[in-house]
Request: fold
Amino acid sequence: RDESLREAPATPPYNLSEYFKQFLFPQNECELHNFRLSFSQLKWDKWIIAPHRYSPQYCKGDCPRVVGHRYGSPVHTMVQNIIYEKLDSSVPKPSCVPAEYSPLSVLTIEPDGSIVYKEYEDMIATKCTCR
Amino acid sequence: PHSRGRGVSDRTPGLLGAPEDAVSGLNPLLRPPKGVRRGYALLPPLLKVLSDRGRQTGESEAPRLQPDSRALRYMKRLYKMSATKEGIPKAHKSHLYNTVRLFTPCSECKHRHRDLTKGDVHSVDLLFNLDRVTALEHLLKSVLLYSFDTSLPISSSLTCMCHLSVKERDFSSQVCPSLSHSIAFSLHFEVRKRKWVEIDVTSFLRPLIATNRRNIHMAVNFTCLMGDPQQNTKLENPINMALVPPSLLLYLNDTSEQAYHRWHSLRHRRKNPVRPRQRSSPLADPTGDRGEENSQGKRASRRR
Reply:
């Protein structure tokens, strides 16, 4: 035991903050971003009567290397990150995508002149995740 | 599309459903694979916009017939009652529908005759074309929507007799007589600045709509008298109402994938509460969460 101690070089006091740096959340981490459009921009206001404005939102940002419970990500996400970092960088890193949506009610004029009120599923992103 | 147990979606016209001809004009990359079930046939105009990358949006839209202004006013009012300004559906218990379609009668059938022998009877012959109703839209309620402008004193009450008959062609017999189901009912309502009168014809039309009837041909005799039968038996002269031929309103439950289902989202929310799930991966938390064992313990007890 003495010999092994004598041989081993004195390692500098381990710098914990360095160790944790690799797990810090990225600056522009994955999160929900606002986006609002009006159907007149798409020139659809002739047949979409309401709503006038529509905020579909979107997800953007880098996924931290260790996503864990923060994004409700499955373990597969970390496995994919390890593959990307250690085995094959052609495998993409996990992406920042919507995890939940809310519906949208739309009032439109049909080609035959009838009018329809419809509630569509999954039209507004409300939560992001890394996958 | 992942199936949520609601069956394969059929063509859903409107925002997310483009008529089949829209598919032919699409960029080949966006067309559904050959022989794919109809479920894929609904390529929304949204995709059409993406495929017409060069062209300005809205140019490729086929011209649409303009709706009746009264009908438009009614549907805008219905929209305000059903959704917020941002377009989020309001959660009403009674609000079971996720689709409401308003049809105005075809112009060529709108004629009106007065049977002068019986006084002032308004009779209108109506033909509604229901082509836009898809096979996945199930009828919840149907209403004849009368709007009328009268110079009635506001406090007056009206008693109306309504005789409704539906004419349908009977293809089985050679002579093709027009069979007709008819129903007569009286309505009593207060005119308090009311511009609309809704006549529930659900039970009457359900069999026709359930059999995917595309055209509904009906004759409506509408006689309104001032006064209230309870108070004075002698009803005064029939008022001369400028009756506008009614629109047909269908409250539907669209069972396709794109449509929003309250009961589904409520059940989904109950199953997966919004709180993020604890992950017990070795790398989950570099600080080695001391609480791990009791969260595991908690999880095990929850599973038990």
